[in-house]
Predict the structure.
Amino acid sequence: MNIKKRRIFRKRLRNLLFGCLMVLAFCSGFFGHSILSAQAQERNTPASERYYTCIRLERGDNLWQIASRYANKSGYSIPEYVEELKRMNGLDDEQIHFGEYLTIVYSEPGEL
């Protein structure tokens, strides 16, 4: 009789833990999605309204100068724009070279 009660207790405990894990998984997925959606909506310019072009780098250009020139036309702050330039152009660091082309982002087609 005692062994039978233990088995029933373990089965109920296992079912309770499984149910708790399922609720936790659902909540983390739901709230995680909500947080990511909220962060995505924080951007001033929706991704569907972003435009891209390439510019040829001049002597003395660096990512921070380019960011200060174009960041206000993109919805990014200057540091965010520098990081976006690095990401879009596959740069590991901020080193760029005269004569190369750099892809930039802006929000209105007639702004450049």
Q: What stands out?
A: The first strand starts at residue 51 and ends at 56.
